[in-house]
Design brief:
- The structure is a single chain.
- The chain is 43% helix and 20% strand.
- By secondary structure, the chain is α+β, with helices and mostly antiparallel strands.
- The chain folds into two domains: 2-46; 52-122, no CATH class.
- A hairpin with a 2-residue loop joins β2 (11-20) and β3 (23-31).
- α4 runs antiparallel to α5 (112-122).
- The radius of gyration is 18 Å and the shape is elongated.
């Protein structure tokens, strides 16, 4: 999904654009001066890539080129193993909790100690 801004008669309006097959869908969000629209834009920009303050977690790769959807397992494993509370908070905003739990249960990268902690944190039964 992308954010599209259109200027009409001096006012700027924001749409959320997505593709479904060959169709492009535009969902109206509102005017840019609306606080609710500003919050949505900020969340979308935050979820578009790894934030700069979390770049140190990805020391072995170029963190600016990490694609959050394609590299989801890598990102989740790295944040759960090496991250801090703000990093986990960002992780929960970007990925559904069930996705994080799925990666947590099948990961061979996350240590047993960290895995047990995060299973308790997320309320996984077999912790």
């Amino acid at each position: 999904m992308n954010i599209v801004r259109k200027k009409i008669r001096g006012h700027e309006y924001v749409y959320l654009s997505s593709r479904e097959g060959l169709r492009v869908i535009h969902k109206y969000l509102g005017r840019t001066d609306s606080p609710a629209v500003a919050r949505i834009i900020a969340e979308k920009n935050m979820a578009s890539g790894v934030p700069e303050d979390l770049g140190s977690l990805f020391w072995d790769t170029n963190w600016r080129q990490i694609h959050l959807r394609r590299h989801a397992r890598y990102v989740i494993e790295r944040v759960l193993e090496l991250g801090w509370l703000d990093a986990v908070s960002w992780l929960q905003r970007v990925y559904p909790v069930q996705t994080i739990i799925d990666v947590l249960t099948v990961s061979k990268v996350i240590t047993v100690k960290s895995g047990n902690f995060w299973k308790l944190w997320f309320g996984v039964k077999d912790a």
